[in-house]
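Handout, section 4.2: multi-component inputs.
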Amino acid sequence: MIVADRKPVPEILEMVSNDQNILLLGCKGCVTVCNTGGLKEVQVLASTLKIARKKEGNPLKIKEEVLERQCDPEYIEEIRDSYDNYDAIISMACGVGPQFLSEAYPDQRVLPAVNTTFFGGAVRHGVWEERCAGCGTCGIHHFGGLCPIARCSKSLLHGPCGGSANGSCEIAKDVECIWDMIVRKKMEQGRLDDLQQIRSAKDWLTARDGGPRRSIREELTE
Amino acid sequence: MSTLKSGSRLEKVLISGAFAFTGECGPPKGANVDHLKEKLEHLKGNVDAVNVTDNQTAVVRMSSAAAAAIMVQEGVEPNFQMVCRDRNRLAIMSDILGAYALGVRNMLCLSGDHQRFGNHPESKNVFDIDSMQLIAMVKRMRDEGKFLNEEDIDGPPKMFIGAACNPFADPCEFRPHRLATKIAAGADFIQTQCIYNMEKFRDFMKKAVDMGLTQKCYILAGVTPMKSVGMANYMSKMVPGMDVPASVINRLKGAGKGKVAEEGIKLALEQIEEFKAMEGIAGVHLMAIEWEHRVPEIAERAGVLPRPQA
Amino acid sequence: MADSFDPKIVAFCCKYCAYAAGDLAGSMRLSYPTNIRIIQVPCTGRVDIIHLLRAIEDGADGVYVAGCLEGECHFLTGNLKTKKKVTFVRQTLEEIGIEPERVQMFNLSSAMGPRFAEIATEMTAKISKLGPNVVEARKAA
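Output:
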């Protein structure tokens, strides 16, 4: 899923410092799964903002709502009748949500409550790790099912570099060296030869480097 | 390995079978050419080639290509280092052409320390290609006269291609295999990370010899004399991929106050003696960073002077 | 100012230890401040971040959670989970300029009647010193 972290509260307060009445919009998609922007987190943020504003003697009215997703127009439409009742809308969805809202309601101010970070999964409750860089040409099958583009700090295709130590990346002891994992897996499988070949330079056109991307399913379009 | 690939002094020395001796010099943290020239004075004539580091440890310094060109003007042969961290393939090919045009004939292809270690940790990192692909790319530019996209180069750069090797990084068992791949990709010479664990290095070299790697490539053993116990401890704990055995640290401690630097040099000289006789070792790469003024003395005591005429 | 105000303190007490200790304090006729409003929960694990925040939002001067001793939670780890939630709430309060000491977690066993009374007294004294919750103070002003 897409993982995001809530922005620090002072930063969010700054965004709405001149507002009296806002809509706080959560999302039941990815941000619920990573416990950042679902129903519970909407309630907690709303209460926190209210406490802070009461303290200033400048109360903030907050309408709390959660959409099924903020990355499909039909759910964004659900607030068509009420969106302009507010001074601003704060979205707790990943970066896609506030943008879809901005595009649907260009005359309303839409603010992001979270910092969207990576594509990842839960390695244990409360901890999510990056697994995919969205490079557009998946080749994990060449590396024992592990991705060096996303998980090697230098995106090496012929790692590990000379900084790998005890299975850790040179940047921090608690970051795994994915190349150490790939090499050990290949050694265990007796397939170290797979790593001897010299791979051609990666085609980054399919990654964000090639420009903003689009994906079309012709068979579904009208 | 009979016809010259680049015609560099380093290449000629290695082909002749003489024991090569290279040094290293970090460019200044600015455009202060005098500072660079000062350091070069100590190295001139005492080494076959001088490595020029490329924003080492991600700290911004004068570009290695420019510093290398200045060295050429000063009559010192550079070995210009290039990391994959800061440039994409376009800039890399472009810089190689520029460096070659300015008289640079040796280059070392490296991945590069992550920019988080440096003085601009928030910068974007590039890593468009990795060191393996860089080696292969330079070889193609030199031998086929082609850019990465197969277009012809108007004046191919005939570089003598070097790569780095760290026999002590993990996973240890894989290091000889990775070295083999670098040689297959086109590395003409290798400079290793500085060595302190001689036992481990001997094992590594045995494997390299067994795999036939030393027939295809010149390996230069990295030596860095320890200046102090503090330096030894720092390198042991803080520098990734560094293996400093307790015996080395204890030996330095035992030297007594004021005598540690001399003991460090003695240790380095012992290593150089062993490397001269070690099978598969074609020379030594001396990295006396910020200690360049001791290089003439070390070279003298190591018995590698005068350097052969090339 | 601080002495003349009567703090309102909410105490979430787990049925198996804290509330039982409260009962014991009662049977032992121990005195403790009347400022404490006790809410019984089956386990402190039931208490969520939102409950603590809403208590402050609605004007409580102090909030505490009282549960079993660590390692002796009737539901095994409920009290450990809530310990982390309390830390989160304290950090949040600090972020918005409210004293984190207004929210706290305590651990005791059902046999510790005197400790129950002591906690109530401690908390009341601490909150009295801190002064009224700004939220309430503003409302009154």
